[in-house]
Every structure is written in C-alpha cells, then in structure tokens.
Predict the structure.
Amino acid sequence: FVLSATEMTSGKVLWKAQEQRGETWFDELRLAGKGDEPGFFEAFVHGDTVVVHGLYDVLSFGLKDGKLKWRYQVPFAFEIRHAVMSGDMLALAGQSETVLLFLGTDDPRGEVVWQEKEEGDLYAPPYFYGERLVSLRKMPFNLTVRYRSTGKLMGKLALPDLTLFDEHPLLENGPKELPMARDGKWLAVSDGNYYIMLDIEKMKVDWKRLIDENDITQTPPMRMELQGGYLAVVKRNYDAKAIYMLNSRTGEVLWRTDPKEARSPQPIYSMFMEDDKLYG
C-alpha cells in the first residue's frame, strides 16, 4: 500500500510515506491483513503527524517527511470497523470491543489509553460528544456511553430492535445508510414503526412517535437530518415519496408533503440544516 502527500496549489507530490525494514526505508507499506485488507480510506492529522489505518494496523507518519513514527497492531480477533478522532485520542471501534489510542506517543508500537469489551455488534459509527464516546450497538440493541479519557461506562440504555433497512427512499441503487441523525445531546433513530428521540446526557428516550402513513407490510426506507428544534425525515408513503418536518423536541409534525397538493414541499436528497433553513 502507498500513502502520499500532495501540494494543493500545484498538485506536486511532496512525499510518499516510508517505513523502515532492516536498514532500508521502503515507500511500499505492508499491512497485517491478507486478501481482505482494503488499505487506507481516511487520514487524521494530529500536530506534525498524519495517522491512517487498515483493518488491523494504525500507522503514524511525520507530516513533513512521511517517515513512519509508530505502528500499532490491534489485539487478536479485533478488526477496525470505524475510527474517530477527538483531540489527541483515536477511538478504534471493533465488533465487540473499543480501543483508544494516544496519538502523541513516542512509543514505536503505539500507546493504548484504554480497551473495553462491548455488548453487541456495531450498529453505526461511534462519535464523540464532549467527554463522551457514544456508541449504538445491535444484537442486543443498546446505546453505550463511555468517558473519553478512561473508558469507564457512563451509562447503557437498552433499545428496541432498530431498523436494519438501509435502502435509499428516493433513489434506486442509491447509497445505503441506516436512518439516524444527531445534534448535540440528541440522537434520532427508528425501529421501523416509531421515530425515537434519545437524550444521551440523561440516557433516556425523550419521545417516540408512530411513523405516519407507514406500510405495515414492509419496512420503510428513510433518511433523517436533525438540527436544533427540527427533525427532517424523507421516506416512502407506500408508493409515494414524501418529506416530513417534525418538531425535534416533541415529535409534532410541522409540515409535510401533501399528495393532493402539487405545490406542497417535495422530498430532497442529501439534506442538511443551518440557520432555520433546510438544504438539499
């Protein structure tokens, strides 16, 4: 595998990452995976280093010269599903375990801050909210929150079986994604029958609402976007595509697509909200 840095103004390759094997530096990087190793899909910049990961390795290189500073290899039977950075920490989420690394280490083997077993497989990528590491897991379904610095469990909330239907509500063969959205302490999810709003500070279900015009014979494909007092939902009403805007604090429907009114709001793709406006 190869990692390179490019100057943004000219497109010139500044360096190719190198690791030392014996007395020689090589710019072809070896990873622990066999035929299933996909290589690098993301890079994290921390201070004067850049960090990348495969399925089983985390590598840190000097940002100026691309020389390998340290390499961490995960424990036996651990596979990196997701990685997320917070300050000088990098959380590695596996099927049933979480590992937190210290990015500023000088140890050539990497440095583990904490390592904890988890209950259930990953439902979605974990994320940081202040000093909290928030993780949704499945089989059994639960919301797990840990202290960022120690890994100590802050709380665990049992959840109903959340939907596993990741089809796109508007596009045939569109990108697959589970319906969920977050904003600050709020996390919106669905079990296919209800919209469910979670409060990750109080570790409780704040409210739940039956999904409007829901075809009980099949799981509805949905996408969500959450910001401030608003929760936008794009879904299929039987064979019609629709958008709903809900009050995110109560679940009340503020407006929606009216199939009898052509000028009513129509569903949009790739939603995001800012300053009381919905874009897509």
User: Anything to note?
Assistant: The longest strand covers residues 230-237.
